């Protein structure tokens, strides 16, 4: 993998898209993870205005601090980067209070956090004629559908969606992403008990990448069979996220 060429290609792709569509700039939610870190640097390299939002919702302190450190890194190295912190904790609490009589579902509440952030990103995007830049990688977006529909999946462009997680890390090291982020366990940050992605999925990204590339069921270890099962199960149940919305087409006759 030639990281320099890929970095240049993605940066030019983002810039060309914005120029073609008369876009003033970009907006990204910074999570404190590797995907948003790499995507924000690639976008900053276009030299067009980039607004980074830090949107904590009762965020774990280390995640929040990683986000702030990364934004400081961006602003130190790229003059086109601006920053805004929008604390959504009270809004989330008010939502929970409003639906307090309903049956509690922790997964629904976790996804609500992502959707509140998406709404916030699009609010500021429309104010500035910016577009929302997605941060999903290939494993998440097209392998197991590990994202929130109309949450972190609600974006205008997806610059790193053709990169495996391991490739995102390669770019991150080349782009000098801070060690705190490079060494942190991947997490979506949507749970009060700070579940990592591996806790939720039951497999590491390296294992999932192996499953994406290997369809054979011959000569597999017990763990490899488990990983394949996890991958195919998630790929199936999340297929609705990866295909166009079904439309009822009325016959002309």
CATH H-level superfamily: HUPs
Spatial ordering of strands, largest sheet: 3-2-1-4
Averaged pLDDT: 95
Beta-strand percentage?
A: 5-15%
Give the overall shape: globular
Q: What's the architecture, going by CATH?
A: 3-Layer(aba) Sandwich
CATH level 1 name: Alpha Beta
Low-confidence runs: none
Description:
By secondary structure, the protein is of the alpha/beta class. The protein has a single domain, classed as Rossmann fold. Helix content is 53%, strand content 7%. It is built from 12 helices and 4 strands; from the N terminus they run αβαβαβααβααααααα. The chain has helices at residues 3-20, 34-44, 61-77, 89-98, 106-128, 138-144, 165-174, 179-182, 197-201, 205-213, 222-237, 239-242; strands at 25-29, 50-54, 81-85, 130-132. A 4-stranded parallel beta sheet has the order 3-2-1-4, sandwiched between helices. β1, α2 (34-44) and β2 form a beta-alpha-beta unit. The longest helix is centred in the middle third of the chain and has 23 residues, at 106-128. The relative contact order is 0.14. The mean pLDDT is 95.
């Amino acid at each position: 993998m030639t990281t320099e060429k890929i970095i240049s290609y993605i940066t030019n792709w983002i810039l060309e898209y914005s120029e073609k569509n008369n876009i003033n700039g970009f907006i990204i939610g910074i999570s404190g993870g590797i995907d948003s870190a790499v995507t924000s640097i690639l976008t900053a390299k276009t030299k067009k205005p980039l607004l980074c939002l830090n949107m904590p919702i009762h965020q774990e302190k280390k995640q929040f601090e990683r986000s702030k450190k990364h934004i400081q890194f961006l602003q130190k190295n790229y003059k086109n980067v601006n920053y805004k912190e929008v604390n959504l904790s009270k809004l989330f609490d008010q939502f929970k209070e409003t639906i307090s009589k309903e049956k509690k579902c922790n997964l629904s509440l976790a996804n609500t956090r992502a959707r509140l952030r998406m709404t916030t990103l699009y609010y500021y995007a429309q104010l500035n004629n910016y577009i929302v830049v997605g941060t999903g990688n290939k494993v998440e977006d097209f392998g197991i559908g590990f994202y929130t529909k109309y949450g972190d999946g609600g974006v205008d462009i997806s610059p790193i969606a053709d990169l495996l997680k391991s490739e995102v890390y390669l770019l991150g090291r080349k782009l000098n992403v801070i060690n705190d982020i490079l060494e942190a366990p991947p997490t979506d940050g949507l749970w009060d008990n700070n579940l990592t992605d591996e806790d939720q999925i039951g497999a590491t990204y390296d294992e999932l990448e192996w499953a994406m590339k290997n369809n054979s069921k011959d000569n597999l270890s017990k763990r490899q069979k488990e990983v394949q099962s996890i991958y195919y199960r998630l790929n199936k149940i999340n297929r609705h996220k990866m295909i166009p919305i079904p439309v009822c087409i009325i016959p002309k006759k």
